[in-house]
Specification:
31% of the residues lie in helices and 35% in strands. It has a 4-stranded parallel β-sheet, with helices on both faces. The longest helix has 14 residues. The radius of gyration is 14 Å and the shape is globular. 36% of the residues are buried.
């Protein structure tokens, strides 16, 4: 059985509330659990960049890797140019990035809703909802 941390995307208005016009935004997307939930991965990254552009913000760089919750990988892979890091990952991934980049503003683009697994049809079901 494959276990996954279940996430959903925050409304863009909530994400935008943490940004200021002129912010240089680095976008980080998890290519593991968030990708499997359809909230991260390359697709989530591209959707978020599009929303940023439509909202008058731009991404100065982007990072796609897994798992974002691995602090040692964050240290090796991430070299964000932006003063703001927008993260498409679970709370553990956001926490890793905050620990590594203490001087940068970190914004979470996803809600972590629970622990899931895949059924025989390949669909994620909630094993335990986080409250």
């Amino acid at each position: 059985m494959i276990i996954v941390i279940v996430t959903d995307t925050k409304p863009f208005g909530m994400i935008k509330a943490g940004l200021k016009k002129g912010d240089e935004v680095s976008v980080v997307s998890c290519n593991q659990c968030a990708r499997l939930c359809g909230t991260g991965g390359k697709e989530g990254l591209d959707e978020m960049k599009e929303k940023l552009g439509e909202g008058g913000y731009g991404a100065c760089d982007e990072f796609l890797f897994a798992p974002v919750c691995d602090e040692s990988l964050c240290r090796k892979i991430l070299k964000p140019k932006g003063s703001v890091i927008l993260v498409l990952a679970c709370e553990a991934g956001v926490s890793s990035i905050k620990r590594v980049f203490k001087t940068k503003k970190v914004i979470s683009a996803l809600n972590t809703t629970g622990l899931g697994a895949f059924d025989e049809d390949g669909c994620i079901f909630m094993v335990r909802e986080f409250k």
